[in-house]
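I am still getting used to backbone structure tokens and would like to learn alongside you. Would you supply a protein for us yourself, any chain you care to pick? Start from the sequence, derive the backbone structure tokens from it, and show both lines together. Go ahead whenever you are ready, and we will take it from there.
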Amino acid sequence: MKPKRLLAGIVAPVLILPLQLLVQHRVISGRVINPVDGSPVMGASVVPKCSTTGTTTNADGAFTLRIGNEVYILVVSAMEI
């Protein structure tokens, strides 16, 4: 009976670890500025390419976005600069 428990104690973490790696996220942050005068761009949309989840910049042009571990291209758009 003990060998089966030992095997279950080894196999279960090995099967669960890859699932934990898949759900890990990271937080990125940045600032969107006007390329002409360096002023912050408030209300700009920041969305990872091929995604529908994103965020907008605050009054200082700053944003924080939680994304997966994949490499993303961020698409930034604003109505006026």
Summary: The radius of gyration is 21 Å. The longest strand covers residues 25-31. The chain has a mean pLDDT of 78.
